[in-house]
Amino acid sequence: MPDVHVLVNDFVVKLRKRKIEGSKATAKQTAELLRSVISQQRMPHVNQAGALIDAIKMVGEQLIAANPVELAVGNIVRRVLHIIREEDLSLATAAIGGLNLSAESDEDDDFNRDDHPVLSAAAVAAAARSTLRPPSLQALLEDVPNPATVPRSSSSGGDSEGKSKSADKTSKRWKLKHNVIEAVNELIQDISTCHEQIAEQAVEHIHQNEVILTLGNSRTVMEFLCAAKEKKRSFRVFVAEGAPRYQGHVLAKELVARGLQTTVITDSAIFAMISRVNMVIVGAHAVMANGGVIAPIGLNMVALAAKRHAVPFVVLAGIHKLCPLYPHNPEVLLNELKSPSDLLDFGEFSDCMDFGSGAGSHLLHVVNPAFDYVPPKLVNLFITDTGKEQVRMGAGVTELGWNARTCRNEPGNGEKELSLNRIAFLSKRAVRYEINNIVLKANWRLSSFLLSKNWGTGNLNVWSNW
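The structure corresponding to this sequence follows.
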């Protein structure tokens, strides 16, 4: 197995040279690299979790600095750090449970108590706090055995006792690393299958004879649309070409090859065609903590057009794209500039790029940003590989509380949620108008009543009759 430093340096070079494109590929390779770092990390006798956390933090800082725009790298690093803390907390909780059971069964036997490790006050406090919050997904998936239920053989000899203690310490030392690697393997599997899990929900959102608009080339969107096609749903797709890289042309060819009715339109024709569209379905580069979306360039214009014509704007994103940072954070780099050659041919515009006489600057400047920011108020629905989250009426997404995967697999609740979501989409303005009228009337009558009560006791009967 190659040295971990060589693996980290090679991956850093790939990130700096932008040889890895796409959030899914970046997230998967980052998780695989961190798994190699964990497997080759030497575990000390004490504070094994601290050693793993320090190693992951050191590698994570290098990866994030190599390509700050690729937020999926930082998301995976934070996810792995969370896994380490959760697994360490699970082992500490299991050890505390074993101590409690041992104390109840053998209160007068001090010899058995010496077999358990001495836990720090921080571990005990963390285990106590864990009982006050619901378990994480990793804790639910893991089957950690209770140390108290493991039979221990008693020995009267001092040598056998010392050997059992050393073997027990060695097993506990490697238990944390084993659990963390297993959890990272599950994370890699979730990243690999995120497209399929998102596509399973396509039939709940795409209906017969609808018109779907998308922009650019997103594999998640392509699998989502093709999954609805496989369920015998007949619909048409409008694909904006996504200038200047024209990734929409690639998506249109793939959709036609899969048997979907596809129409390619220019980016400038989005406002003209949006009135014929039933739903906008797009991918995302990252989803920020406030619900804002970092997406390919041009999607903010699509979101504004959808908002103007009351068309639902749906974003497909795997959980590896959920970023806990806010757009205004100084460490967040929201955009980068691509090569000007995507816009102009240097041979044809070479005379315009010469320096002006005495000005000392170029006569022609070319700006080619890669990403766009869509504010949360323009997004109606997020669909992830763990469920869907609808935006609250009249506001943006402020908290990303994703539904459990088992909830959407129930046959009865899925159709009810679908119908309610669709009603909320189609009648959002009407419902908001009725709610505002009700609140306005209630406040006006309450103000009139309070005014009549403060006006004077002599006029109270007159005002109450009114």
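The radius of gyration is 29 Å.
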